Structures are given as structure tokens and as C-alpha cells.
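Sequence dictates fold. Next comes a concrete instance:
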Amino acid sequence: MTAEVPRADPGRPDDTAAGPLLDQPFDAQTLHLLRAAVLAHAVAAGMPQHRAADVMLAVHELAANAVRHGAGAARLRMQAGSGALRVQVRDAGPASLDGHTGTGDVDGQEIGGADGWPCQPGHGLWLVRQVTDQISVLCGPGGSLVTAVFTLDVAGVSPAAAGGPGA
């Protein structure tokens, strides 16, 4: 898969009716491009830099899961509107019965912790839950759809970042 240029302009006003801020396919080789695009678009949507970093971290975890446990490639959609930034990651389902795509690595790291780091399943979604204000995960034979919501608070602090409800 080759990297595609995002279809949307990061400077577009906060308007979900105008379409997504970002609509981008990705695979293991383009995760670094996805992280950069997500960070830029989150800031452009009005997210403070520290919260935009949370958005990028959450999206990376979701995207890496989609690559690792899905068919090896997936799509991200990001929209801003009604005081929230919504991010969706959709994959086409598992590539094999063991959940591995056969690509062997994500971001240069061998699947299964062969690089010396312990591989503990479940920490990625745990991390996503810590930084989002709301998350939903839908899984089925046709793939998974994960939606993460980040509040665009006027004061620049979301309930999750402040340790409030949804944290």
C-alpha cells in the first residue's frame, strides 16, 4: 500500500456536515504518516497541543491494533463538530485464525515481543480508554469499528484529561 495524501484540509472550520477533517487509509508502513496527520488535524480542529498528543497516541494504538489483528490495512476518519473530535478506525477483519496479518511487524517492532519488550495484550485499548472521553468498539466477522471521542472544551481541558467523568 502506498501513502495517500489526506483528502481534507486541516484548516477547515468545525463542521461535520462539510465532511471529515481526515479520511486516510493506512498500513504498517504508513503509521508514521498517520500519526503526523492526526496530530496536525487535531490541533487545527482546536485541540490544545497536550490533548492533540493524546489523540495521536490513542489513534496510533487503535491503528496498530487494526494492522496487527486485522487484515494488515485499515482506514481512519476524523471529524470535528458539536464540541467534540471523533475518530473512527475501521478494519476489514482478521487475516488469519491467530489474528496475525503475516506482515511480521508494526513500526519496525516484531509482533510478539521478539525485540525484548514484553507483549501484553490489552494495554493498547486500556491506554485509549485513559485518554478518550468516550470509546465504542464494534466487532464482527466483517471487521472492527472503533470510535473514540475527545471533547473540544473551550478551556482546553476535557473531562478525561481532568480526571472527571469518562476518565
